[in-house]
Amino acid sequence: MSVSHENLTLVQDSSRGRYELHCGDTFIGFEGFETDDDGVITLQHTIIDEKYGRRGFARALVTMILTDMRAKGQVMVPLCTYVQSYLERFPEYGDLVVEHAR
Question: Mean pLDDT throughout 60-83?
Fold first, then answer.
């Protein structure tokens, strides 16, 4: 799946427990996460700054996170309702969900 926004960057800030989405130098939003002792990542909530809402940035953020997780061989628990809905629309990422969370 391609992301239509240009100049988007995904930054994993483990110290703050979030993946950040930037467009150039502008902070757009983030996905909160937590990693357990087994390396399983729980995606907690998707937050996009109000002034950038309804433009597809949440979808871009989640797409970039899941693509990055797949490249790193990581798995996750989709606690965030936005991520849960995303996975219903794009089941090709379902293999990233840990078995007990399916």
Answer: 97
